[in-house]
């Protein structure tokens, strides 16, 4: 969005003739940005065609936003995904590898999005989980706030279990007020910020890093009560076809670290459905907190000049391919929600253009009139906001040795060694196999296509893919 031009009429008297004249003075007003990150959020929402998760506030936001139906994270693990997005740069074999990634260690010379905005007069506030670690890229922020992680659980007994175990319980339903949990406290903090910022002359980059629906699935009881567990079904993709290489799967250690979860094998069906129930409840709880903030944005009058971006840092498996958590190269972990509301320019459109998370940084540069740093590898999707077709209709995502090219209906993954030599392959055609159950990569009739996609993957995974830090 170009800077908004405010016309100030200045009246002055010309005493000698007694004439009143008016002069137009142009003042550039930069748009504000409300930046909402939601941890582990699947695009399993009403505006994506699902109808079982209750998220009225996200639905309302989508109705005035441009919704990306095919947005992909560049790496399905929180720390790395966030560092990649906030620098606009791709993961490589040596950069942005896991949850413990920090921007400061992996790419200290890159100018991050919040740093660029701060350097150009924006007040930058980090609330909640934006980077994985609150002490990462600290000079980019005017203020950093994060709630105590103790508040992951509301009940005393759950807190005691957490103190005496590695992770604690995988879910909790407590009859408490929303503000008892972390995200309730987060919403109140962001609301206080909006109330302060409404009188500020500085543009702002205000963030809201929502923790839920990340494990543990803890939410006030009223959100659990929105769902009938008897109606919850396991996903249609709750199987592991033999055509898919074992490399593609994992033992979902993230979930198994919680209490009362079997250490190996499939989960009991009742437990699997309870986890799905907990995930739904956590999404509805997160939705309510986001709604409070969006309502305050309207009440303060700031919505008229505030771009709202909402994204999930990656997808999450809810029994898909008999897996839980992220950390895989299936679409369930790579595809995530992305919405952008630009005042006066978005009205609830849905884009099917393929978009990567590294494209968010240059887009916000274009919308705020800032020069895109040369380290940024993403491409602005402002043309899509303007109703045009994307010039770059593909994405590349990576996790460990697996690198995935997403192009049209095709999902092509190679697992490569340190020299780039492939040792496993996976190819799905979403036009005929949306659930990714039939791996075409080793079938003779697809050999030519696999060779073509392999070459294209190498062209697109980044020029510094093998570069050391």
UniProtKB/TrEMBL annotation:
<dbReference type="GO" id="GO:0046872">
    <property type="term" value="F:metal ion binding"/>
</dbReference>
<keyword id="KW-0378">Hydrolase</keyword>
<dbReference type="InterPro" id="IPR017850">
    <property type="entry name" value="Alkaline_phosphatase_core_sf"/>
</dbReference>
<protein>
    <submittedName>
        <fullName>Iduronate sulfatase</fullName>
    </submittedName>
</protein>
<comment type="similarity">
    <text>Belongs to the sulfatase family.</text>
</comment>
<dbReference type="InterPro" id="IPR000917">
    <property type="entry name" value="Sulfatase_N"/>
</dbReference>
<dbReference type="GO" id="GO:0005737">
    <property type="term" value="C:cytoplasm"/>
</dbReference>
<dbReference type="Pfam" id="PF00884">
    <property type="entry name" value="Sulfatase"/>
</dbReference>
<keyword id="KW-0106">Calcium</keyword>
<keyword id="KW-0732">Signal</keyword>
<feature type="domain" description="Sulfatase N-terminal">
    <location>
        <begin position="31"/>
        <end position="369"/>
    </location>
</feature>
<dbReference type="InterPro" id="IPR035874">
    <property type="entry name" value="IDS"/>
</dbReference>
<dbReference type="GO" id="GO:0004423">
    <property type="term" value="F:iduronate-2-sulfatase activity"/>
</dbReference>
<keyword id="KW-0479">Metal-binding</keyword>
